[in-house]
Amino acid sequence: MATAPREVLPTSEARAALTTIAAEFRENGTAAGIVVFGSRRVPEAAVVPYELIELLDPVIEDLVVAARVRERLADDDGERVSLSDVVARFNIDLDR
Question: Whole-prediction pTM value?
């Protein structure tokens, strides 16, 4: 039942086939492939073997972190503040 990533199942067909899809994932693991589905065959979501998620988890985490870094760099105005400036501005006693 798993399809090539380019073939998009209608959502209703994917929903009806979930038991079959899960059985194929159990039998074939990552080789079962990815099931892509969406309304009017427009890709909106995917069902993947959990085994594949376990393999991809470190990569996904790296991609999420990289996206956050890019966002922060885009917002960076270049201004830097030293620790001593922060201590003075907020009247912080570092010796406590």
Answer: 0.63
